[in-house]
UniProtKB/TrEMBL annotation:
CDD domains: TM_PBP2
Name of the featured protein: Carbohydrate ABC transporter permease
Source organism of this protein record: Paenibacillus sedimenti
InterPro entries: MetI-like (IPR000515), MetI-like_sf (IPR035906)
This protein's UniProt keywords: Cell membrane, Membrane, Transmembrane, Transmembrane helix, Transport
One record GO biological process: transmembrane transport
Pfam families named in the record: BPD_transp_1
Membrane topology type: Multi-pass membrane protein
PROSITE patterns per record: ABC_TM1
Chief localisation class: membrane
Entry's transmembrane regions: 12-35, 74-101, 113-136, 142-163, 184-209, 258-279
Compartments, record wording: Cell membrane
GO CC terms of this entry: plasma membrane
Length: 294
């Protein structure tokens, strides 16, 4: 039986599609303007502002960013930190979240409270610096960008809630067949929890990709600078060069600062933008299911 849509239903659907299309364009215009501005000259940006198409097309901002081979090393460091950090963080998070989702685990409420407590209170910058630099001795080590961030309380609770939403009879049936907890976690629970894993994994990947503050505190070796921190240094150096040129009366010397900021945005956000469409369906489903049961 074919149900025909009424004129009112079709009209409502058309209006919804038009609104969604306009909203999508509204969201895309700023991003397109950023890309366009990164290929524009500094003088055109200051004179005409931002536009959809580049004004006075130039690659000057990108030449400033990629003129030093250090940027390629920084890309490698950031990719390594993101991939290795996300994998290790997911292993630790799942290993902590799964037992805390089981009613049979003793003291799970106490451990849950301990993890939740860290959401409310933090040891502070000084204690963190002393712990990492003196006791753990991880200064000028790439692991300082990974190990301190292996567990996020928010991500752990998100994974725990998703594990709690899985039918307990699956694990009980596997135990009756002789499976241990490790086998149940990796062969039964984690395949079912793929949406939550993709969601939390994306959260971790974004956090590792955007790391720069730890490099400011603990890393002085240029070869270990992550991408975000190196980009900040490039921007700071460009602004300092312009200020110095103005003080010593060099009016013709202008280092692009506005276009450099736009170009660094494109350089740093590109890989994440390309990754997100592949994880979008898991991302949305993981957020919905993980937030249903707490």
């Amino acid at each position: 039986m074919v149900i025909r849509e009424s004129f009112g239903d079709r009209l409502l659907k058309i209006i919804i599609y038009i609104c969604l299309t306009l909203f999508s364009i509204y969201c895309l215009v700023p991003f397109i303007s950023v890309i366009s501005g990164s290929f524009s000259s500094e003088s055109a940006i200051l004179r005409d502002g931002y536009s959809i198409l580049p004004n006075e097309f130039t690659l000057e901002a990108y030449k400033l960013i990629f003129q030093d081979a250090t940027i390629y090393k920084a890309y490698g460091v950031t990719v390594f930190v993101t991939v290795v950090g996300t994998v290790l963080a997911m292993l630790v998070t799942c290993a902590l979240a799964y037992p805390l989702s089981l009613k049979t685990v003793k003291y799970r409420n106490a451990v849950n409270f301990y993890v939740y407590f860290t959401l409310l209170f933090h040891g502070g910058l000084v204690s963190t610096y002393i712990l990492i630099s003196k006791y753990l001795d991880m200064q000028n080590s790439i692991w300082v960008l990974i190990i301190p961030a292996l567990v996020s309380p928010f991500n752990m609770f998100l994974m725990r809630n998703f594990f709690k939403s899985i039918d307990e009879s699956l694990a009980e049936s596997a135990k009756m067949d002789g499976a241990n907890d490790v086998y149940i976690l990796f062969r039964i629970i984690l395949p079912i929890a793929l949406p939550a894993i993709a969601t939390v994994g994306l959260f971790y990947a974004l956090a590792f990709w955007n790391k720069w503050f730890e490099a400011l505190l603990f890393i002085s070796d240029v070869d270990l600078f992550p991408l975000q921190y190196l980009i900040i240094r490039i921007q700071s150096n460009a602004e300092f060069a312009n200020q110095l040129a103005a003080q010593i009366s060099l009016p013709n010397y202008v280092t692009p600062t506005y276009t450099t900021r736009l170009a660094t945005t494109v350089v740093t956000i590109g890989p994440i933008v390309l990754l997100y469409p592949f994880l979008q369906k898991y991302f949305v489903k993981g957020l919905l299911v993980g937030a249903v049961k707490g």
